[in-house]
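Open question from group meeting: does this chain pack into something compact, or does most of it stay loose? Before anyone orders reagents, we agreed to write out a predicted structure and look at it together. Recording both the input and the output here so the notebook holds the full record.
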Amino acid sequence: MDNSSAYKSDVSNPINLVVIVPVYNEAENLRALAAHLIKAFRKVEGVCWKCLFVDDGSQDTSWEVIEALSSEDSRFQGMTLSRNFGKEIALTAGVETAQDADAVICIDADLQHPPELIPDFIREWKKGYEVVIGVHGDVEDYTLIKKIGSAVFYRIINQFCDISLTTRGTDFRLLDKKVVRTLRQFSERSRMFRGLIDWMGFRTKTIEFNAPARLNHAKPSYSYKKLFSLAINSITSFSLLPLKLTGYLGVLVTTLSSLLLLVMLTTQIIEWQVYTVQAYFVVFITFLVGIMLSAMGLMALYIGHIHTEVVGRPLYIVREKTMARSSD
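C-alpha cells returned:
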C-alpha cells in the first residue's frame, strides 16, 4: 500500500495549513527550501497549504528572493519586519498573521529542519496531538561548547523553572489552531517561543530527526551571545529562582554570622579565647550584610510577583468544551 495514503484527507474539505519560516540573511537557501516544501506536500492530500516567509530585517537579498518566489507561486508569501527583532518575535509575527489556518508549521530556512518530515507531523496531528515537536538527535554543526551548554540549559530550566521544556526540542513544530489562538494571548516581549508552547500543556508528540549540516554552510544567525541571552531570558521568564537566591544567600550569611558571634561571645566569657574589637566588628558587619541581603530577597519576591502580573499570561487554558445538548 502507498504510504502517502495515510495522509489523505477529504479533498472536498481541505485542511488550511501555513508554514512559517523566519528569515535572516538566508537568500541563498530560500529557493532550495521552497523546492523541498513543494516536494513534501506532494505526499499529502487534502491540504491547502501556503508558506509565509517572515524577513527579520535581513541585510542580504532575502526579501528580493521572497518577492520573486511570491510572484512565481502564489503559495509562497512574505512579510518583512522593519528591523531585526530576533527569531522569537519573527515566529510570533508569522503565527499571529496565520489566524485562519487549521494548523501552522514553524521551520527554519537552512534545511536543518527536514521538510520531508512534514507528512509525519500532519499524520500525528490528525491522531489528536495539538503540538508536534521535532526533536533533534545528532547535529553536525554543533560544537562541544554548544552540546554542553544545551545539556546544562535543559537541566537547569527543567529542574528550577515552572515549565517542563522538551529536551532537545526545536522550533520545528506543528501547532494546532487552538495553540495558535492561545499563543496570541501572550504579551511579553522577552520570550522563548518554544518555552511558551511547552508551558501551555497541550497534547504533545515528539518526532526525532538527525539535523544535517547547515545548507551552504552558512554562518549561524544565532551567535553564542544571542544563545546566552535567550537562555537567561528563558530562565527569568519561567522562574523566580534568580530573585530568591539573594534571599537564600542573606539567610545563610545571617545564620552563619549569628552562630559565629555566639561562639565568640561564649568562648570569651569562659576565657577560652580572647577576641579583639576588630574581630567583633567584622562579624557584626557580616551579620548586617546578611540582614540586607535577606531584605533584598524579600523585596525580590514582591518584584517577582509584579513581574508575573505584568507578563499577563492567561490564568488558565481551555483545551476544548463539550457542547450542550439541545432539548427536544
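Observations to bring back to the group:
Residues 37 and 114 are 9 Å apart (CA to CA).
The longest strand covers residues 15-23.
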